[in-house]
Amino acid sequence: MTSRGALFRSLVDICGMRFARLAGPADTVGGTPASWVAAPPTIDGVAAIVRLAVEHDLAVVARGAATKLDWGARPTRADLLLDTGRLAGVWHHAPAEGVAEIGAGTPLRAVQSALARGGWRLALDGPSIGGTIGGAIAADEAGPLAHRYGAVADQLAGVSYVSATGILTHSGGRAAEGTPDRGVGRLLCGSSGALGLIVSATVKVHPEPASRAWVRRSVWTPLELYDLVRGVLRSRVRAAAVELDLPASRPVLVPRQRAPRGPGTLAVLLEGEPGEVMERSTKIADLLGGDASIRSEPPAWWGRYPFGPDDVALRVVAPSVELHAAIYAIRDAAGTAVPVRGSAGTGVIHASLPGDAYPDRVAAVLEAVRGVLLARAGSCVVVSAPPAIRDAVDLWGPVASPDLVRRVKTRFDPAGRLAPGRFFGA
Length: 426
Known about the structure:
Strand content: 15-25%
CATH class of the largest domain: Alpha Beta
Oligomer: single chain
Largest sheet: 8 strands, antiparallel
Distance between the termini: 32 Å
Shape: globular
CATH topology of the largest domain: Uridine Diphospho-n-acetylenolpyruvylglucosamine Reductase, domain 3
Radius of gyration: 23 Å
Number of helices: 13
Strand order of the largest sheet: 17-14-16-15-19-20-18-21
């Protein structure tokens, strides 16, 4: 009791009375309950809390907006939830250098709104509504613009994080001195907070485009999609994004047309000066043929996941020319068409399986899909799933270098203090 009282007083000293408390029923990570919740006001406060966790032998899990907190493996312990919500704001914006330093707890939409006032934007457009920049990095969550600008790691000029021993560390960016170690930033992407607690990120910023247009065309099958995407990628027309949507539905009968429209959609985003965008959009529409049309607004599904909170969400990564094989494999293993959506141009898509499926059925689907992808330099991981399924199936599939994964975790967190069990099961 004395130790718990001392811990609480220390948390209050760091965070303030309103920002340190005992965890409640909703304070869980993938079903693993927390004991304490603390929201430090500063970077130094984060470091102080981690040092306190070391002193009291507590496991620490970072929480931003909690939009992706239940993704991946559940931690074996989550003694203390460290809320990053007070580490918010655009702390430094240097247009001449093409970067902005942003607090980890800042919602991406707030960042985009603030930058837009000066005619700038981030190329981070992940689908999680309300998600923070720290969460996007920790989950390696990219959106449609990754086709042109690259993955999350490609958008990082630097990152500041607190180590498992409570030491503030800078990697790259304006805050770093000496030779930047950009490799650390790449390791933090997708680490679920298991290698370090991200407190800020220095991210590349880009001018807002003067004009945008979406070319849309319906598609019938994954094979047809393959032919269309290959044509777009081989053309000399530079696209900002190439997205697909294949719902588990039948063809649509379009009024005043004799032929039905394919149930799926391929959408290509073009950005730039108005005249240039119109010229390139017309070329893409002619290339796609069929019922291709040019629109000034994105389709309703653009930048959204095909799964809900109670579904089994899969992320498939494969060369874009192999995506059709992956989609067919998912359908064949599931025994039916399943919703698929994502970036056809970069080869990163998501699929949704019913959350009430039997765990062994889901395991069979994963085994079949991973078998097909293994020979195609691809992978399939479970992003999220109901607890009964998540605990019963292999979330990651074959890991290229499991010993290397364990060595990385040991190097950054030898005591297993940060989100234990979340980093590829390490």
